[in-house]
């Protein structure tokens, strides 16, 4: 069995696009235009040791729409890890109860530890500030779908990543996945202290992409084809580290109009922070067609169905040509 732990498992754009062809085939089931029961009798274990709405519910809904059922455990309090049980024991025990697991955990590398202890497929639903591979896959699927609608190519385009690039696991996975394409220009816009980790810059830089870092949102967004805003992960560091963070980093209608054309797409993995003083993405773009955030969330279902189809080897859903997907 395979796991999905990191986007590093995808070594070519072809391997990702094969998965997206399966996601395309899942669209009628995701939209309930077609019924499938291929996972009837199968059980998904959703183990979330951190808060989640989208990842937990959409993985669960994807499994149910394919005929399976879901057992959810949310937070440390409701698992016996609160009594000191190890990742190894938890994973071994769950392997006897369910057919696949989606796990979110606050420590980087912890989901891989779950995977090493089991022989059932494990999906990384976010491991601390590490990775969030299924989010990056649905983000890339969204970008390709939007670009196809706009008649644009991803190769050679300008991607602006803004916000907390240090602790934001979605941007870590997305930047590495995008690097499978050719000739991209990345602008990385973050407050001081929240820059993209050096290891990711080195990995992406080796593929010959242009990478520019700036602390000015206006400078970084100028001419972008995709704006990807992120929330500051305040739960992952002390308030004093915030330093230069301010309203200057908010993606809103005024700055999008000033810096980008009518074809830009504005994305965010969500949740966006709607509390007083939060700055990631304004609601004043809510009715602007350039805002793709809810098309992004909708794409989570077919992409996650495709992940299950491959990981669980659902032969009726995976065409012969795609059965050798190596990840
Ligand atoms: N994008 C994302 O991971 O959202 P949740 O935290 O709600 O799962």
Secondary-structure element order, as H and E? HEHEHEHEHEHEHEHEHEH
Q: Which structural class should the secondary elements be placed in?
A: alpha/beta
Biggest sheet, in brief?
5 strands, parallel
Ions, cofactors and other bound molecules: phosphoric acid mono(formamide)ester
Shape: globular
Strand content: 5-15%
State the separation between the terminal residues, measured CA to CA.
10 Å
Number of strands: 9
Low-confidence stretches: none
Helix content: 25-40%
Radius of gyration: 19 Å
Global mean pLDDT: 92
Q: Number of helical runs? A: 10
GO molecular function, one term: aspartate carbamoyltransferase activity
Domain Aspartate/ornithine carbamoyltransferase carbamoyl-P binding: 3-143
EC number: 2.1.3.2
Keywords: Pyrimidine biosynthesis, Transferase
Task: Characterize the structure shown.
This protein has 327 residues and is α/β, with parallel strands linked by helices. It contains ten helices and nine strands. Strand 5 (158-162), helix 6 and strand 6 form a beta-alpha-beta unit. Helix 2 packs across helix 10. The longest helix has 19 residues, at 293-311. The radius of gyration is 19 Å and the shape is globular. The N and C termini lie close together (10 Å). The model has no long low-confidence stretch (mean pLDDT 92). Bound molecules: phosphoric acid mono(formamide)ester. Residues 156-310 form the Aspartate/ornithine carbamoyltransferase Asp/Orn-binding domain. Pathway: Pyrimidine metabolism; UMP biosynthesis via de novo pathway; (S)-dihydroorotate from bicarbonate: step 2/3. Residues 3-143 form the Aspartate/ornithine carbamoyltransferase carbamoyl-P binding domain.
């Amino acid at each position: 069995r395979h796991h999905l732990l990191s986007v590093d498992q995808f070594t070519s754009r072809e391997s990702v696009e094969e998965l997206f062809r399966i996601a395309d085939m899942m669209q009628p089931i995701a939209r309930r235009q077609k019924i499938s029961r291929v996972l009837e009798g199968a059980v998904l274990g959703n183990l979330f040791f951190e808060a989640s709405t989208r990842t937990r519910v959409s993985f669960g809904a994807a499994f149910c729409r394919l005929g399976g059922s879901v057992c959810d455990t949310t937070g440390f309090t409701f698992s016996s890890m609160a009594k000191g049980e190890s990742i190894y024991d938890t994973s071994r025990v769950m392997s006897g109860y369910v057919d696949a697991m989606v796990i979110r955990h606050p420590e980087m590398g912890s989901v891989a530890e779950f995977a090493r202890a089991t022989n059932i497929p494990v999906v990384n639903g976010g491991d601390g500030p590490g990775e969030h591979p299924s989010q990056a896959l649905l983000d890339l699927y969204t970008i390709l779908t939007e670009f196809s609608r706009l008649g644009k190519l991803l190769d050679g385009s300008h991607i602006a990543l803004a916000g907390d690039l240090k602790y934001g696991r979605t941007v870590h996975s997305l930047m590495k996945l995008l690097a499978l394409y050719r000739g991209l220009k990345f602008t990385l816009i973050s407050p001081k202290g929240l820059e993209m980790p050096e290891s990711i810059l080195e990995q992406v830089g080796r593929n010959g992409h242009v990478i520019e870092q700036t602390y000015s949102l206006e400078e970084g967004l100028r001419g972008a084809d995709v704006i990807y805003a992120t929330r500051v992960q305040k739960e992952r560091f002390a308030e004093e580290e915030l330093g230069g963070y301010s309203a200057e980093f908010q993606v809103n209608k005024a700055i999008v109009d000033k810096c980008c054309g009518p074809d830009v797409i504005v994305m965010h993995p969500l949740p966006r922070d709607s509390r007083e003083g939060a700055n990631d993405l304004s609601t004043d773009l809510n009715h602007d067609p350039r805002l793709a955030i809810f098309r992004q969330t909708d794409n989570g279902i077919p992409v996650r169905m495709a992940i299950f189809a491959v990981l669980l080897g659902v032969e009726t859903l995976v065409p012969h040509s795609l059965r050798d997907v190596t990840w």
